[in-house]
Write a structure and sequence with these properties.
The chain has 996 residues and is an alpha/beta fold. The longest helix is centred in the first third of the chain and has 23 residues.
């Protein structure tokens, strides 16, 4: 909306304050500044507020607003006087206003930093979280305008409003004066206020998805009169699935006399339906969608599934249509799946919803599935069905203009019917939020992701989201840091999902292999080694082994404390006549299931070759329904486990598979001491998943066996198991979060760094920023305890000799020309120059070989102790945020891409894992008899750099190269820093839905 001439031109309408938000019940609303055009809306809104609410607002009977009141409440300067409104369908449902005041409570202007705030919410919308959302947004506006405190007068009986202030998480003071409660809120965000905000966001967004997946009634708009077509197909699938709610067919082209279609009521418009419609599936051409959306909004529909195509996948014009579709739906409080969607499924017995184009509704199971591709969704549904796996929910979001993978994570986090979340993503609209949500969800249940469009550098057609410029390897590393199981193909996603949904998490990487084929056992053994597991020698039961032999061997392996998981390999039995017997799959499945039912909680996977019916029999013999909770008692780690790995106590005692987690006393964290060192826990039935809700576990209830997954190839089974091992280790570590050492606070001058950054940016104002000189970079890094070894320019031999005399021999002579920097292989560096004669000789050789001093820009630097050359970098990606990177200098990182990454701020655990996760890490720990280097000093350097870029987002790029890490200490020989105005962050500030 545009400001009117009555409003101050230098306080233009702040359109960046506009935001779509999800309310507590899952509906959406729009928050925006109030303008002079809102007079009629304000009067209409006030007329619908009860006398009691008016009394609470004005402390006296106030039946109507005067013209003066209307003028005052609609005329703002957007600095000292600000009003925000929450709207649905264009009409106000709530307002908030602040007026800047001085110490005496009188109207004031800056630099006064306090404001009086007051709210009013329509009675019909109280309890939906309207006031809480308004408080977040008005507080952000106030901070932007230099206001640091809110003051509010509330009547003691107005408990709802007092609760809004109390529950906001802000630091507050309360007093009772003149018959009212006087509240003062400090608006600086606190850890508690941020937690409150994100908790509300999680519950609201989860509820918004839950409303879509569990509607009480569904209308299919665009149902064809003749069999076939998209709308008629969806209606048929709804009925075939046994949907428990009310179903309606809607098409404006229906004959007036048509009462039913396929046995459900048929209507020409939603207005003809007398009852509430919760969900509308829209299957009409794109040009008719706006009419259908308006009809839905005007009749109280809560959510939409838009199957219609013709939007952003068609180019710029379609992208604008898509944006308008989202704006229109949100204006009515509705969320959208799509457009160009395949549909949604909910297999819960109380819902049985199949509002999709999938001809068969999948069986009920424990896996939640989200895809951004209809074709991939079809393939995944088919693959899971073929292998006997069931789903709890399915969303195919198409262009995902509104509901996204982030919303699905919010829903999956607290859905008791989902044990594992599988996501096929082609774009990440808000990577920072995704990693935050994924980390929280992965702490209670596995999240498996396949990321499409990994190497194109662009988004797929239809995905109008910001493009991240970070390499896919970095994206993968950041997902791993958040606990996400990142796989490359949808086949691997199904493989991992089956294991995680049906089996407990392994306590470590030790694998027992048993079967009736020596060759298949050896293939499995080799695959385990390739994936970093620790297989025991395969147990060959010989081709004469019976199902009972398999059962006995599996039971023995499960009872063995020296293994953490079991892989069973099986080939068809060969009869006495030499013919293969392929009909024993059912018998073998029963034997394996009985062994698992009587053994300890360890994951079991089966690799089979051409045993007919085995996979189906295993699926039928096992249950994927949630078992009753059971707390597994920890056992002492075996001596072998202690020899292999640093043993730590499991942070949780958890039930055998799905369900609840029972908290236990966490043990002290044991940091890894060398690359490849895995952490171990006592043999413990750790689940693959659990719900975040607390519940009382019943230790007397035996575990019900989960589904034993079967694989047609050893490599696939082992890869799935390896992912489970890595995830289990991450989950144990995540239970005891890393810390940022307190000693950093004593050696960091944050204020000094801030002043330097402000001065540098002010000296050369440029939105692209500016690089710092070597001395400027040294000064900035010095404020954070990062010492960069000085260099002295050497424009001629005499200057070089003088510099060496000042620094002391031995010295290094090197070029700093951009095309030669860090290229020792081109001869631009001379090390260990011992005296003046050697220095003059080296200078001459350098200029004779590479060019004139003016081109080479040579410098002299004192020699550093010998060690391993490494590279430490930090950079800010506009989409993903600040990223800390580490690798060895030279070919390992530049040619082979052997670089590790972590999100900032990094903890002590992140720093330790960072230097141990590169493939060349053994070089740091005494490879081939060399002396181990000072990794503790390296970890401290990483933490200091992380703190710098986290404290000062204007530092958009830092490269420390090389960092020579010696057996004692390290030396930073080179540093480059770039400053720029920080990119806007999408993960801070008040809650809001993205607008793409």
């Amino acid at each position: 909306m545009e400001p009117t001439p009555e409003q101050s031109p230098h306080h233009a309408y702040p359109d960046h304050w506009e935001a779509d938000v999800v309310l507590r019940d899952g509906g959406t609303a729009r928050i925006r500044p109030i303008t002079t055009d809102d007079a009629e809306r304000l009067v209409s809104f006030y007329e619908q507020v009860s006398d009691e609410s008016k009394y609470y607002r004005f402390f006296a009977p106030y039946p109507r607003l005067s013209d003066r009141d209307v003028h005052r409440f609609t005329h703002h300067d957007y600095v000292d006087r600000v009003g925000l409104a929450v709207t649905i369908g264009g009409e106000f449902i709530g307002t908030v206003r602040y007026d800047r005041i001085d110490d005496t409570g009188r109207p004031a202007s800056a630099p006064a930093d306090e404001a009086e705030v007051a709210f009013l919410v329509q009675d019909a919308h109280q309890g939906r979280g309207v006031a809480s959302a308004l408080l977040e947004h008005i507080a952000a506006v106030a901070r932007e305008r230099g206001i640091r405190r809110f003051a509010a007068e509330v009547l003691p009986a107005n408990n709802k409003m007092i609760k809004v202030f109390r529950d906001g998480g802000y630091t507050q003071r309360r007093s009772f004066e003149d018959g009212s409660v006087h509240l003062t809120l400090d608006l600086e965000p606190t850890e508690k206020s941020l937690a409150v905000q994100r908790g509300r966001e999680q519950r609201a967004e989860a509820r918004s998805v839950q409303r879509l997946l569990a509607p009480g009634s569904v209308a299919v708009i665009g149902t064809g009169r003749n069999p076939g077509g998209v709308g008629r197909t969806v209606l048929r699938n709804l009925l075939a699935a046994g949907y428990t709610g009310r179903t309606y067919a809607v098409n404006r082209a229906f004959d007036e006399g048509l009462a039913t279609l396929d046995g459900v009521p048929a209507h020409r418009s939603l207005g003809e339906i007398d009852e509430q419609v919760d969900l509308a599936v829209i299957a009409v051409p794109a040009h008719r969608v706006p009419e259908a959306v308006a009809d839905c909004g005007e009749h109280g529909v809560q959510g939409l599934v838009v199957l219609s195509a013709g939007y952003a996948e068609r180019g710029a014009e379609g992208r604008e249509l898509q944006r308008e579709l989202v704006r229109q739906a949100r204006s009515y409080g509705m969320r959208i799946i799509g457009p160009n969607a395949f549909g949604i499924i909910n297999t819960a017995e109380t819902v049985r919803l199949n509002a999709s184009l999938a001809p068969e509704s999948p069986a009920r199971g424990r896996i939640g599935l989200f895809t951004q591709s209809g074709a991939i969704g079809i393939a995944l549904l088919s693959g899971l069905h073929r292998r006997g796996a069931g789903l709890s929910s399915f969303i195919s979001a198409g262009n995902r203009a509104d509901v996204s993978g982030n919303d699905f994570l919010q829903y999956s986090f607290e859905d008791p019917d989902t044990d594992v979340a599988l996501l096929y993503l082609e774009s990440l609209g808000n990577p920072r939020k995704f990693t935050r949500l994924a980390r929280r969800t992965a702490a209670v249940k596995p999240v498996v992701v396949v990321k499409g469009a990994r190497h194109s550098g662009t988004n797929p057609p239809g995905h109008a989201v910001p493009v991240s410029r970070i390499p896919d390897t970095t994206v993968s590393a950041l997902m791993r840091q958040a606990g996400v199981i990142r796989v490359d193909t949808v086949t691997e996603m199904v493989d991992a999902g089956l294991l995680l949904a049906g089996q407990p998490l392994p306590a470590g990487p030790r694998v027992a292999i048993l079967g009736n084929s020596e060759s298949l056992g050896l293939l499995t053994y080799d695959a385990c080694l390739a994936e970093g597991l620790r297989p025991r020698p395969p147990i060959d039961l010989t081709t004469a082994a019976s199902p009972q032999d398999f059962r006995d061997a599996l039971a023995e392996a499960l009872a063995d404390g020296t293994c953490d998981a079991v892989i069973v390999t099986a080939i068809p039995w060969v009869g006495e006549d030499g013919e293969a017997e392929t009909g024993d799959g059912q018998v073998l499945a029963e034997a394996l299931t009985k062994a698992v039912a009587g053994g300890s909680a360890k994951p079991v996977a089966v690799v089979h070759v051409e045993i007919g019916g085995l996979a189906e029999a295993l699926a039928a013999a096992s249950s994927t329904a949630a078992p009753r909770p059971r707390t597994a008692a920890p056992r002492a780690a075996s001596p072998e486990a202690g020899a292999d790995r640093a043993a730590v106590t499991a942070p949780e005692a958890i039930n055998d598979r799905a369900g609840t987690t029972a908290p236990a006393t966490p043990a002290a964290r044991t940091a890894p001491t060398a690359p490849g060192t895995a952490t171990a826990t006592p043999a413990l039935g750790t689940p693959a998943s659990g719900t975040p809700a607390d519940a009382t576990a019943d230790p007397e209830t035996p575990p019900r066996p989960g589904r034993i997954p079967a694989y047609p190839a050893a490599e696939r089974a082992v890869r799935a198991l390896a992912e489970a091992v890595k995830y289990a280790q991450w989950r144990r570590q995540a239970a005891v979060p890393g810390k940022i050492p307190e000693f950093l606070d004593d050696t960091i001058d944050e204020a000094g760094a801030a002043a330097l950054i402000e001065a540098q940016l002010a000296s050369a104002p440029d939105p692209r920023g500016r690089p710092l000189s070597h001395d400027e970079a040294r000064e900035l890094l010095g404020h954070y305890g990062i010492d960069v070894r000085p260099t002295l320019p050497a424009p001629d031999p005499e200057a070089a000799v003088a510099a060496a005399a000042r620094l002391g021999y031995p010295v290094a002579l090197k070029t700093t020309a951009p095309h030669l920097r860090h290229r020792a292989d081109l001869g631009g560096v001379r090390l260990d120059v011992a005296d003046e004669e050697a220095l003059r000789r080296a200078y001459g050789e350098l200029t004779d070989l590479l060019g004139k001093p003016a081109e080479l820009l040579p410098v002299v630097q004192a020699m550093a102790p010998r060690g391993v050359d490494t590279v430490v970098r930090a950079s800010i990606d506009a989409a993903a945020g600040a990223i800390l990177s580490f690798g060895l200098a030279g070919a390992p990182s530049e040619l082979l891409g052997d670089t590790a990454h972590r999100l900032v701020p990094a903890t002590d655990r992140d720093a330790a894992e960072l230097i141990r996760s590169i493939r060349a890490a053994p070089v740091l720990f005494g490879w081939r008899g060399s002396a181990p280097v000072d990794t503790a000093a390296l970890e401290e350097l990483l933490l200091r750099l992380s703190r710098l870029v986290d404290d000062h987002p204007e530092v958009v790029s830092v490269a420390l190269e090389p960092v020579v890490v010696a057996p004692q200490g390290l030396t930073v020989l080179g540093a480059s820093v770039r400053l720029a105005p920080p990119p806007a962050r999408s993960d801070v500030g008040p809650r809001r839905l993205p607008n793409y």
